[in-house]
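User: I'm curious whether this sequence folds into something compact or stays loose and floppy. Could you predict its structure so I can see for myself?
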Amino acid sequence: MRLDPFADQSLHDVLDAVAAQQPAPGGGSAAAWSGAYGAALVEMAANFTLARPKYAGVHHRMADVRRDAKALRRELLELGQRDAEGGYEPVIVALRLPEKHPQRERKLDEARSDASEVPLAVAEAAARVAELAAETARAGGVHLQGDSITGALIAEAAARSAAGLVEINLAGREDERLERAADASRRAGVAREEALRIREEIVR
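Assistant: Here's the prediction. I'll summarize afterward.
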């Protein structure tokens, strides 16, 4: 099933689609799009930093951050679309098979494995966004620190949420993707802690 790109729809319509009584777009897409919001905040912070001569010492690095955040924003939008187009649908199809169907368990196992791919990619991309957000909070324009910190918190939530979907889909397995998902959550958590320390210094 090919849907019209959600990125081209109004925010109102996207939220209506998420709220509807249908399996997709669901948690995976919502996590991806949240991560994209975090990336956009990083881009904004980098853009403002690059526009100010007083931050000339970090301009080269901020240009790299802006480039990476923009790429991650696009990647996360695409991942959200992929998830909405049926990333979990094969799992639902397999679950609807009769419990004594000879191929039910195999199909369900394969479907859950396949359904883990997009959330894993979301978790890893969002973790990187969180790290970039913490960096702009630390080294970017001081008037954009609040936006950078918000970006880090949003991205960390996206990474942890998507990693949780991987854990659910791969429950009971020995699979290296579980370690990758856990690592993404850990990295995003470290970035969030750094962002919160910066916030504490601001409000102190």
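Summary: Residues 24-203 form a domain with the Four Helix Bundle (Hemerythrin (Met), subunit A) fold (CATH 1.20.120.680). The chain has a mean pLDDT of 93.
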